[in-house]
From TrEMBL:
Annotated protein name in UniProt: Rhomboid family intramembrane serine protease
GO MF, any single term: peptidase activity
Recorded topology in the membrane: Multi-pass membrane protein
UniProtKB keywords: Hydrolase, Membrane, Protease, Transmembrane, Transmembrane helix
First-tier enzyme category under EC: hydrolase
EC numbers, comma separated: 3.4.21.105
Annotated compartments: Membrane
Record field: transmembrane: 18-39, 59-87, 94-113, 119-138, 145-163, 169-188
Keyword Membrane: yes
Any one Gene Ontology BP term: proteolysis
Pfam families attached to this UniProt entry: Rhomboid (PF01694)
InterPro entries referenced in this protein's UniProt entry, alphabetically: Peptidase_S54_rhomboid_dom, Rhomboid-like_sf, Rhomboid_protease_S54
Record's keyword annotation contains rRNA-binding: no
């Protein structure tokens, strides 16, 4: 592959990544606009309702629901930034990490969460954070360790979110999301893959 082909491949990959992230963020915003303008916030009842069978649907739906535009704005930039960093090595990692995090975060909240509906993309965002911070530990390559350090420097303060410090914030979603990201980091690491061969 010559330099021009390589440049074209990188540009195509970046375009694909931007499309994936842009589409998901657009869905977040469209859902919130429709929820506020049409349903007066009633869509939030499709979030995770701990220990109620109907609340299980929220495992898939909760990341697309937000309590307000301020909530959505607070989640948009970290979702874009950390989501793109998850894609850096391989775009498909984003889908695998998202799925693992969604499942572990959602089930954790459903089993152990406080009463009331849990909504928002922050559980998935904390999954990306956990993945990026722990990938360096599991892979132990210079690039992944460096990326873990950079992410820790810029986003390390988010880790306080896994503690019950702010009323009304689903710290359980953050905690189990982070755990899910750590599980994904291990499962996608070269060491885990070599054990399955």
């Amino acid at each position: 592959m010559d330099r021009q082909d390589e440049t074209n491949a990188i540009a195509k990959e970046l375009k694909s990544q931007a499309l994936i992230l842009g589409t998901l963020v657009a869905i977040f915003w469209i859902v919130e606009i429709v929820d506020v303008m049409v349903f007066q916030g009633q869509l939030d009842t499709f979030g995770i309702l701990p220990r109620h069978p109907i609340g299980l649907r929220g495992i898939l739906l909760a990341p697309f629901l937000h309590g307000s535009f301020n909530h959505l704005i607070a989640n948009t930039l970290p979702f874009l930034t950390l989501g793109w960093l998850v894609m850096l090595k391989e775009t498909r990692d984003f889908f695998i990490v998202s799925a693992i995090t969604l499942l572990i975060s959602g089930l954790g909240v459903w089993l152990f969460g406080s009463s009331g509906f849990h909504i928002g993309a922050s559980g998935v965002i904390f999954g990306y954070l956990g993945f990026l911070l722990l990938r360096g530990y599991f892979e132990r390559s210079f690039v992944t360790i460096f990326l873990s350090v950079v992410v820790g420097f810029f986003y390390g303060s988010l880790l306080w979110g896994v503690l019950p410090t702010v009323p009304g914030i689903s710290w359980e979603g953050h905690l189990f999301g982070f755990i899910g990201g750590g599980v994904a980091a291990y499962l996608l690491s070269d060491r885990a893959k070599s054990k399955t061969l």
